[in-house]
Amino acid sequence: xxxxxxxxxxxxxxxxxxxxxxxxxxxxxxxxxxxxxxxxxxxxxxxxxxxxxxxxxxxxxxxxxxxxxxxxxxxxxxxxxxxxxxxxxxxxxxxxxxxxxxxxxxxxxxxxxxxxxxxxxxxxxxxxxxxxxxxxxxxxxxxxxxxxxxxxxxxxxxxxxxxxxxxxxxxxxxxxxxxxxxxxxxxxxxxxxxxxxxxxxxxxxxxxxxxxxxxxxxxxxxxxxxxxxxxxxxxxxxxxxxxxxxxxxxxxxxxxxxxxxxxxxxxxxxxxxxxxxxxxxxxxxxxxxxxxxxxxxxxxxxxxxxxxxxxxxxxxxxxxxxxxxxxxxxxxxxxxxxx
Length: 339
Fold this sequence. Notes:
By secondary structure, the chain is of the alpha+beta class. It folds into 2 domains: 165 residues, Triger factor/SurA peptide-binding fold; 107 residues, Chitinase A, domain 3. The protein has 12 helices and 11 strands. The strands form 4 sheets. A 4-stranded antiparallel sheet has the order 7-6-9-8, with helices on both faces. The protein has a 3-stranded antiparallel sheet with strand order 3-2-11. Strand 8 and strand 9 form a beta hairpin. 24% of the residues are buried. The N terminus is likely disordered.
């Protein structure tokens, strides 16, 4: 995990702006029923980890790590997600404390030059000396030593996670290729058609008059569509007259797996050439016009084309497994008391 993340989150660089936002709302319920404001942290104990007390300040920090968009909405989190966010934040702060205690137990240390660099980086996040001084007063009892203790804690957490998780999660080229060869179904390319559409959609439960009117609109649309000469002209027409949601994308549905296309459309596109515009296709009571941009035959992705994304995904999965295993191992002998 990157040092910058731990410095930002574990040292609470954004704690003061957050407190200001939340404190401006005396009620914990936001004006909208969809969002609930996070209660302003007061230093109230919320959990003990092997006797070490963590407070609602730590909890709030973790909640905003999980849902950073809340900072843009006056400290509000979606009501439907509030319990899950709070529960996840609690588990994360407990995990970080357990990792820190394990780092201390192992005798890990932070070189003085690393401490100095981290403190310098941290101070650069403040817009002015006054803002930095205000943070020290609010979050560190005005003490630079308290701040350095917070930074040291962050760096020790980072150091242990790097050795026990990040380095062990590294995936080699040989491992990537072995996974690629063992799971061919994940790398199949389905037969697909890249298409644009213009649709005419009568109302649900349309009466005879409405169906007739829809057919008239469709007849007008096909004449205009047939007159288009390229992707751009068809797309501009789709934006103007199409009645489906894809009109805002120039009617472009990109490459669609043939299995997802309506049978009526599949039958038509199989006989089309690239760049050709279909006749009217009726699907139920709706009408659609298709422009075929490309036919992509079924096949297999090449390892060279997927290896970078595959490595990232494999490392992400391995990292999550190792973190979960570390959390479980540390909790096995720990005493965690939620208050």
